[in-house]
Design a protein that fits this description.
This protein is of the alpha+beta class and about 325 residues long. It folds into two domains: about 10-100, Phosphorylase Kinase, domain 1 (2-Layer Sandwich); about 110-320, Aminoglycoside phosphotransferase (APH), C-terminal lobe (Aminoglycoside 3'-phosphotransferase, Chain: A, domain 2, Alpha-Beta Complex). Helices cover about 45% and strands about 15% of the residues. It has ten helices and eleven strands. The protein has a five-stranded antiparallel beta sheet with strand order 1-2-3-5-4, sandwiched between helices. α5 runs antiparallel to α6 (about 185-205), α5 runs parallel beside α9 (about 280-305) and α6 packs antiparallel against α9 (about 280-305). The chain is globular.
């Protein structure tokens, strides 16, 4: 059966071999997952339980980083993650490595059927739950800022500094965006550089390095009502996760909620900041982190000629997200 463009044809016999490697039971059913941008995942049901199969990694380090972050979040926080995260890098079965983890319970809030059933009260509770869960994830700290990479034992420190890595990442994405088409303008580039200049001093203020998911949004979470109240009951997809300034994780979910309803974005941010008090310079740093987050999305869309964003320039699309009015 063909499960996605990325995974291609996979036979039940292959899934069974993958399950056998971890003694996960006899395959009863394999089902394509209708969510996600890249088609890496398949639901597997066996006589021992329900699992998520994840195949054909984007990078050689993807599954190893996801396993590391899942293990740490499970052991050192109360974050609801799919543990254990099992990986097999052997390419004999599929031609590429794979990962298998338990299927988490909960509702996919990005499911249109689910969204139609949600009331405004539900959404306010969800916005609060998203803020609480993110703060819990950020209780995972590390000795220094860095990220997992191949050919390095453990977390590789950012060099020469975390702030330089952030700025270099922004400039790299900006240059790539400029090369794709005329949607990214000179005015955009000047605007980005001004935001960097205005916030650079604040970016260098010391912080305690913590877990940064970098892709914290509704599509990578599950939620459900427990005793009549909404909670985040699952978080997944830690491919891009690293250790750095936790403030860098706020823009993606906040931008998503701004697009729905500004009041929800305010609830999310205020809930989070009640738990994780803002550090000195937050108002100056935040726009830089927004630019990084939005450029990650913008560059990908321009590279793939995706017309999802109906705006004439980066600044026109992005500027509203940099504003920190959450009274």
């Amino acid at each position: 059966m063909r499960f996605s463009i990325r995974l291609g044809e996979i036979k039940n016999e292959q899934f069974q071999k993958a399950l056998d490697y971890f003694s996960l039971g006899k395959l009863l059913n394999a089902k394509a997952i209708p969510f996600g941008n890249f088609g890496q995942n398949v639901f597997l049901t066996t006589d021992k339980g329900e699992y998520v199969f994840r195949g054909k990694p984007h990078y050689s380090w993807q599954f190893k980083n996801e396993k590391l972050m899942t293990d740490l979040l499970h052991k050192k926080t109360k974050t609801p993650v799919a543990y254990p995260y099992l990986i097999n890098e052997n390419k004999i079965i599929f031609g590429w490595g794979y990962a298998i983890s338990p299927k988490l319970k909960g509702k996919q809030i990005i499911d249109e059927k689910t969204r139609k059933e949600l009331t405004q009260k539900d959404w306010k509770e969800l916005a609060k739950a998203y803020g609480q869960n993110l703060a819990e994830m950020h209780s995972l700290i590390y000795e220094y800022p860095g990220k997992y990479t191949d050919n390095y034992e453990g977390i590789k420190p950012f060099s020469p500094s975390y702030s330089s890595w952030i700025i270099d990442s922004i400039n790299h994405l900006l240059e790539k965006s400029l090369s794709h088409n005329n949607k990214t303008t000179k005015e955009d580039a000047n605007w980005v550089q001004k935001i960097i200049r205005d916030g650079k001093e604040a970016l260098n203020i010391p912080f305690v390095p913590s877990f940064v998911m970098q892709d914290y949004q509704q599509s990578n979470t599950l939620a459900d009502k427990i005793n009549g109240k909404w909670y985040v009951v699952g978080v997944f997809d830690f491919m891009e996760s690293y250790f750095g300034d936790y403030e860098a994780d706020l823009p993606r979910m906040r931008a998503q909620l701004i697009d729905q309803n500004k009041k929800l974005a305010d609830i999310f941010l205020k809930t989070y900041l009640l738990i994780k008090k803002p550090r000195a310079g937050f108002e100056k740093r935040y726009p830089i982190y927004v630019i990084l987050d939005r450029l990650l999305v913008w560059e990908w869309l321009q590279r793939n000629n995706n017309q999802l964003i109906n705006k004439n320039s980066l600044k026109e699309w992005c500027e509203k997200y940099t504003q920190l009015d959450y009274s």
